[in-house]
Amino acid sequence: MTEPLYRPNVGIALFNREGRVLIARRLRDDGPEIVLPGHEWQMPQGGVDQGEDLVAAARRELWEETNVTSASYLAETAVWVAYDFPPYDGPPHRLSPFRGQRQRWVAFRFEGSEAEIEVTQSRGGMEPEFSEWRWEALDRLAVLVVPFKRAVYEHVAREFRAFADV
Length: 166
Description:
This protein is of the alpha+beta class. It has helices spanning 54-66, 141-144, 150-159, 161-164, and strands at residues 5-15, 21-26, 41-42, 45-47, 71-76, 81-84, 98-110, 130-136.
């Protein structure tokens, strides 16, 4: 039997003009991607299709999950970082074949009006994952996310610190 693989994934850190980051409250579990009480917040993220450019995938996911298109590219993390899913014994799920997710992160600066941000509607054939959004300080994100993603969020905060210090 082969070892389960990590799913290629992109995370998005969308910074506003004040250096805060967009986070959104998860609606529900997504198979092995569970939501724990008190840790429902996260930044947008999603799968990278085979052969898809990382920044293009980040823009697509940002639009699908938040409706945002008014964003300028800032940077991306230099290395892939991974997290393992917690134990899962639920019904078969699209993420079931994977051990976890292997991510690169892309930072954008939000250039639009907050009226553009909409996390509760379906776009691109994807069901909404979030119920609400807000801006948050980058250094607070790790305590808001589920524990199995915490080390990744700490890594992202170190990599993108300069964009929070405006």
